[in-house]
UniProtKB/TrEMBL annotation:
It comes from Methanocaldococcus lauensis. One of its GO terms (cellular component) is membrane. Keywords: Membrane, Transmembrane, Transmembrane helix. It comes from the Archaea. InterPro entries: Yip1_dom. Residues 5-211 form the Yip1 domain. It is a multi-pass membrane protein. It is found in: Membrane. This is Yip1 domain-containing protein. The keyword Oxidoreductase does not apply. Pfam families: Yip1. The chain crosses the membrane at residues 27-44, 64-94, 106-129, 160-182, 194-211.
């Protein structure tokens, strides 16, 4: 896999790849590493958030952090499958021609920007969260949404949230750039039709990631 060409010239990357046999190995590795990093980050952020709960609840919450990490790991592969399905179905309306396995293969490469972004956001997140003071709340305080929201704002400062939002926006644009050419060659579409096909799932995926960040505001 020529990562440099995938990043700088996805048109040539997918054009050359479309002449080769379908192989899910390399996109699988991209999504696998992305899912592992996402799982680690989810485990860490959950562990930090749950420190606001009383000590007698920590044993139960440690199990929930594991569930959160597993969900994040599975979520990476689910996102890959759903995006491929949506793009494949939309491309049918434009007369797309090509197997779903090829669509699945090519869309997997589109997660490279998300993988790179996590390599940036994880160290930034660790820097902010490792230095924050986290108060332990009583059960009465935990039942007060105003207090919980104030503490969450303390744990996740606006600088961190805005930084992640900016990175997320850039990644969404990058996703769209790669997936446009991915679906173009996977389904033999004109560039304009490929762009429209890639736009819908990319926007949905981007909005979901944006919500995951902004919910702490």
């Amino acid at each position: 896999m020529d990562i440099k060409e995938l990043i700088l010239n996805p048109n040539n990357f997918f054009k050359n790849l479309s002449n080769k046999e379908i192989s899910l190995k390399e996109p699988f590795i991209i999504v696998l590493v992305f899912s592992i990093l996402l799982s680690i980050y989810s485990y860490y952020t959950s562990s930090v958030m749950f420190k606001i709960f009383p000590p007698d609840m920590q044993s139960m919450l440690s199990f929930m952090t594991i569930i959160s990490a597993i969900s994040a790991f599975i979520g990476g592969f689910v996102a890959w499958l759903l995006i491929a399905i949506v793009m494949h179905i939309i491309s049918m309306a434009f007369g797309g021609n090509g197997s779903f396995k090829r669509t699945f293969e090519f869309t997997g490469y589109g997660f490279l920007p998300n993988l790179i972004a996590l390599c940036i956001t994880i160290p930034i997140g660790y820097y902010f969260l490792s230095n924050v003071h986290i108060p332990t709340l009583s059960m009465e305080q935990l039942q007060n949404p105003i207090i919980v929201k104030m503490v969450m704002k303390q744990i996740f400062p606006k600088t961190l949230i805005y930084t992640n939002t900016l990175i997320g926006f850039a990644v969404t644009i990058w996703n769209l750039y790669i997936w446009t050419y991915a679906i173009k060659y996977a389904r033999n579409l004109e560039l304009k039709k490929a762009f429209i096909t890639a736009l819908i799932p990319t926007v949905i995926f981007g909005l979901y990631q944006l919500y995951s960040v902004l919910k702490f505001l």
